[in-house]
Amino acid sequence: MAYDTNNIFAKILRGEIPCKKVHEDEFALAFHDINPQAPIHVLVIPKGPYESMADFSAKATEAEIAGFIRAVGTVGRQLGIETNGYRILANHGHDSRQEVPHFHIHVFGGRDLGSMLGKPRA
Ligand code: AMP
User: Fold this and answer.
1) Is 23 a catalytic residue?
2) Boundaries of domain holding 17
3) Would you list the DSSP string of 29-56?
4) Residue at 22 is within a domain
5) Could you tell me if 15 and 33 are in contact, meaning their C-beta atoms sit under 8 angstroms apart?
6) Residues with CB under 6 A from ligand 1
7) Positive or negative, the Cα torsion across 116, 75, 32, 65?
8) What is the pLDDT of residues 37-88, one digit of tens each?
């Protein structure tokens, strides 16, 4: 499937819609999730046009992958949640209920995050 250049995160990257920015560098942009699921809920997205984890891991350059993962670590540090802990999560495709077709890692923190997985669809 071709990358949709009109997805909401592509628009954020182009500055067409605003975000509450946490961090930006050559490889990544991080901003607060609009519908937070924890006291801290930040999204980290690569700057390149990758639809999901599958796409990013297959097609991104080593520099892009390294830079992106470093940015996720930097965000955890900058948010002050490294000591108490945080959870990262990336949804890929239907079964994960991925909504936005631009690869992103969720960073959750600020409280005890409970067990790992929610319930499946009824
Ligand atoms: P996913 O289900 O992994 O694709 O998650 C998409 C996430 O993007 C959800 O947690 C949404 O709340 C979040 N989201 C959607 N639109 C925006 C936006 N304009 N700014 C920040 N977060 C957004």
Assistant:
1) no
2) 1-27
3) EEEE-SS-SSSEEEEEEESS---SHHHH
4) yes
5) no
6) 8, 19, 33-35, 43, 91, 97-100
7) negative
8) 999 999 999 999 999 999 999 999 999 999 999 999 999 999 999 999 999 9
Number of Cβ within a 10 Å radius of residue 8: 16
**Per-residue model confidence as pLDDT tens digits over 79-121:** 999 999 999 999 999 999 999 999 999 999 999 999 988 788 8
**Contact yes or no for 54/15 (Cβ under 8 A):** no
Would residue 14 count as lying in a domain? yes
pTM of the model: 0.96
For atom 5 of ligand 1, the residue with the nearest CA is: 99
Domain count, the chain: 1
Atom of ligand 1 at shortest range from CA of 89: 3
Q: In terms of C-beta distances under 8 Å and separation of at least 24 residues, what long-range contacts does 111-118 make, across chains too? A: 111/38, 111/39, 113/38, 113/85, 113/86, 113/87, 116/87
**The tokens of 29 are what?**
């942009």
Residue 9, both tokens: 């995160």
Q: How far apart are CA 94 and CA 3, in angstroms?
A: 16
